[in-house]
Protein: phosphoenolpyruvate--protein phosphotransferase
Organism: Oceanimonas baumannii
Amino acid sequence: MFPMTTQDIKMNQTLASKQAAIVALSRWLEQDGYVKAGYEAGMLEREAQAATYLGQGIAIPHGTRECRHLVQKTGIKALHVPEGIDWDDGEKAYLILGIAASSGEHLALLRQLARVLSRDDLAETVRKAQHGEDIFNLLHEYPVSPLLAWHSDAIYIQQPAATMDELLHAAARRLQASAQELEQLQNNILHLGQGWWLSESVTTDIPRAAVLTTTGFEYRGQPVRALLALKARGRDHKKLLVQLADWLVTGKAAELTTLNNAQALQQALSRGPRPSGEPTSNQCLVTVRNHQGLHARPGALLVQAAKAFDADILVRNLDGDGHDVNAKSLMKLISLGVRPGHRLLFTATGPDSGAALARLQAVINEGLGELVAPLVPIAAASHPEPVGLLKGASASPGIAIGPLYVEAPVHFDYADVACDAVAEQRRFEQALQLADCHLADAAARAQGQAQEILGMHRELLKDPGLTENVLQRVRQGVSAPAAWWAAIDSAATRQASSDNSTLAERAADIRDIGRQVMAILCNTALPDTPEAPYIWVAEDIGPSDIVNMDTAKVLGLVTAGGGVSSHSAILARALDIPALVAMGGKVMALKTGTCAILNGDTGTLHVDPGEAVLSRALEVQLRERELAWQAWEQRMQPAITTDGYRLEVGANLGDAGQAAEAMAGGAEGVGLLRTEFAFMGHSQLPAIQQQIEEYQHVFSALGGRPLVARTLDAGGDKPLSYWLRPKEDNPFLGVRGIRLCMQQPELLETQLRALLAAAGDQPLRIMFPMVADWSEWRFGKEMFDRIQADIQAPDVQLGMMVEVPSAALNARQFAREADFFSIGTNDLTQYTLAADRGNGELAALSDGLHPAVLRLIAMTVEAAHAEGKWVGVCGELGADPQALPVLLGLGIDEVSVSPKRIPLVKARVRELSLAKCKQLAGRALEASCAGAVRILAGEKQ
Ligand code: PEP
Ligand code: MG
């Protein structure tokens, strides 16, 4: 129902212009706390873009999308203007509804309005209204019941019945008919033809319809194949009969009764007998791609385009309730409930019908004044089947060879509206509970990061903001799945548009949760995977898909979207499954069963390779497996080159709990503890004692090996939920790492105290992240000196990350004071090449083997060694088998990589000669690009 009372209606107003009306409404909305200042400008702007005249004397001014953040609560204020105001092109508005609503609610309100306003005498009735109550009652007239649409849950296939009486009793139960209504049903039976029967009762209660198909018997000498039973009120059921009549007229109604599932029958009935997607010569079929479907503004532009032609133009939403409406009426158009991806079938008759259809198709495809994304962003149909070598971003190394399994996106079928909000709320709550049980089960089976992510999903499921958003929609008559999907969609869209790439990639988590609940609500099974092992190709693979997948069957992962730092990519690496992301929509056009080679080392997918390529890849894969096995056997041995140079190999940890596993995998210490993850894992700043315990946990697993702890690298792309900061345009260039700690020195002070206190006499190396300037280093060092003077931990060094080009360029100065450097090649590469590290499209450019990055590494090593200090590399480049000889040649002393890569890195070092690596490094520094360095590095060292 409308969020208004009679207090929200001002009767008998006189206003000079539509602008005056809009200003009056926006001020009223602001005064009553519905919107903040500035909404007025948004309303006027919307009006300037396209008039908000809905039809039948009603106008619905509202704000632009950009100003919806000014909406504080949903509401409507109404002005009744009996003299009328010229609103649009000679159309007079007598009732002006000023709307304050956020995005999803806005569309729902419009649809509701369109339903309520479908009476023909409306303009006149509005104009003549005397009291606010009259308007209120008009707006709240019982809309056509959603139960009088073809709903699959009111369709009963093959109802066991041998007589008409049995069938009518079954129908009465479905309709929740009273004894009196049953009697009416029995008395009002009509054979419509082709085995279809109609039975009607009249009700003052909620109208309902039910369709029952039968196994077939005869009644009054005619076949009984299906019964349409109605509890009707007024003319509400007319549309159903018209649609059924369409089938009868074409002689195809009998065919319908052979359909053996309710959804198929529902879709066929809604669509009408004309084959969907097969427009005739006076028809055209267009898919709407607007982000929010066909709401008022794009709708108005479509109506404008249609009105430019003399032809009569009808439009039908093939994915809605399937009836034709006049394309020149905005109100009718909105009543179609067109959502993104819905197909509109236009039928034009008249002299200029051809030109009209062409124009309508063009304006829709152009986006009706909005920026439109591709239909299904990654629609298979829009791509020819790709062949050969496809390039993407490598999210997890290794080679997988096998048949592809291309997972088609799942489509959920559901009604938009529901008339029993209480039942709908119950349905929603039960679905949430069930989804939570599934997640809890999966979490019980999972470990480590997978378990954490599932925990995060469970939290998301319980998010009160999300739930309240859904319930609010449900209370307004929206069905549970429609409400849930709208809430999920807007939350995920908001998340995806975050400037912060880490947060943006969490959109996949939201959609993932969304899909799981939708599957329950719509009783739709998520797709079955093949029996034999396969390479899984999907638009995006959610973290829960990964933790639930059968790792024995999934050889590799390929996603059209995604980024290398998404949760899915992190999990793929943790599970050691080769993975490629950001491949683009073309991969969705690949065929399931096609053989492919996924190379996570080179970031390529070779589709349908020839015999020769395949056998070479099999050889490489076999060799990689052998090497991995040998490497694992040798993992506890040091990494010494053939000419006797020893490289320290440490582990990169984000989670203190992984320390023991890393040591068992051959790590010689922790080369990078990303302490910010521990801070991000808490709901508030962890107290000093909590921090001490966490660090002690790592020390006890290390058994005397060194711990390199990086101080808090929060902010920017890794925000702390309990420390809100203003939004930054460029978070990677914003207040992060040491810069953030300078704003909150007590944070760093507590952390340094905790680290030094936890260390006891264990070797502790502390380093500051993101140091770009001398003052930042001095700030950290002075604080450290003061605390260390107090605690006097016996084996401590203080160093810094070199991950900003200025730090490398000024390394000589820093090396005088710092005890060591650790080069963060992930950030150093992104800042040197100005290429966002999370952007899959820039994967080829963001290569740490670029000579410019190597030059900065060389400067850093040279400066450190000149002062007798050591240098490590803790960025991803250290784990790259091609980069390792170059880094060795540049003189690094230590490398720190993810725990799974340690045995392989050590094994690789043992194959190399330092002398040859130095020659290679010299040539690499002179190379023109990263590709050239890779060619050099590919030659045997
Ligand atoms: C780096 O930038 O290379 C690094 C190791 O730090 P992080 O990836 O945590 O930013
Ligand atoms: Mg970094």
